[in-house]
Amino acid sequence: MRRTRQQAMVTRQNILDAAVQVFLKHGFQRSAMQDVANHAGVTRGAVYWHFRNQLEVLEALLDVTQLPWQVMQPLPRPLLGSTPLAPLRQALIRMATAPLICLEGSVAAQQLMRIMGEVNQPDSSARLGARLAVRLEADRAAGLLCLQMALAQTAASGALRPGTEPATAALGLFVLVDGLMHQWLRQPTAFGLTEVGTQAVQSHLAGLLL
Question: Which pTM value belongs to this model?
Answer without folding.
Answer: 0.87
